[in-house]
Write a structure and sequence with these properties.
Length: 436
Amino acid sequence: MEAVPARARGYVAGAALLALLCLLPLPALHTPWWALGLLAALYAASEYVVRRRFGGTFHPVLLAGAFLLPPPAAALVPLPAALVSPVEHRPALPRRLWRAAQPALAVWAAARVHWALGGRDAVVGCDFPYALLPAGAAVLAFCLVLSLLDGGLRVVALGVPLRRAWRGLLSRSLAPVAVHGLAGLMMAVLWRSPYGPVAALLVLLPMYVSWWIFAQYHRERAAHQATIRALVQAVDIKDGYTRGHSERVGQASVMIARELGMDDERVETLRFAGILHDVGKLGVPTRLLRKDGPLTPEERRIIELHPEYGHEMVRGISFLGEARAAILHHHERLDGSGYPYGLVGTQIPECARVVAVADAFDAMTSTRSYRRARPVEVAVAELERCAGTQFDPRMVTALARALDRHGWHPAVTADETARAAPTQQPVAGSRSGAPR
């Protein structure tokens, strides 16, 4: 049983009491009860399906209620959903109260703002584009109340500091709720039109389809992340003395890509490339990766096959895109002295030039068994010294600018076992001290 702190119980009880106060004028209102019942049932069914299949919340019906009903009546719409939706964690009562009180307060505030700005008349008269202004203000009020309540709960239940409790809550919710608000407004306008409620329900069909596509995208993305994590963990197990190196190279690659102004899709691709750049080490004999002392020329040639091994391993993973080229060519050098193919200058793919700089930077700023970590400033100076021969100067400059602006705060640190590993020597002949 997952305990709910006493402060959180009190907070939820206070929100529930406030929601009840919002319902007090209800008996005096001329509320179309059939419309309230239909919207409440529709919202309950939508929430049940969306939570069960997609793991999210579905607001169009709730916001349609804010545009169609008086505020106290609109606050009743989410209550049946809170009663019928399953509760995964115990105790169930405070969680059901929260599921009922939070949307009730939010939709009450949205309806109050909508009616105060004349939104009801605009909806009844199908008065576009004037109906958009009160609807937009209502959506903003809805998001504000949700964010305020969520932030307060984070403070009392999770102990999040006040300065961080509300950070990002409103900005993250505005865009998706605005889309739901537009669908809710379309429902309300069609509901009040000669076509009636049946036409309004048709608005939900494309919303459900888009929600399903969105959920499928996130499931596919989660599968991608799981694939990458499995590959990286396998490399870390095989070559433990560089544990955490892959994630840090991915982080540095992202910093370079953003500094170069790449779009989000390419930034994500560069992150994959950085994380998986050494996946080919899975094809290298473990005894060579863990050898105590310098490698023979033959052993060095075997080690230098790992980019080709890595490319073969990920060649069939379509979502990696150009990251596969970075895995193959991240040990190439601008002057043609790199491997596996000795490419020169712009023959080396751009993504590989990014990862090469990120790889060398992390190698120099991480503690290895054969040397201590270098300061960031020293590592950047070394990269700048080798720019134009080993590294692309544009990538080096981008990393230096990003470090000046953001600093270097790696999310993953070197494993302590790496520092206790047997003494090994750098073998790739890199002037920057890059790993094998």
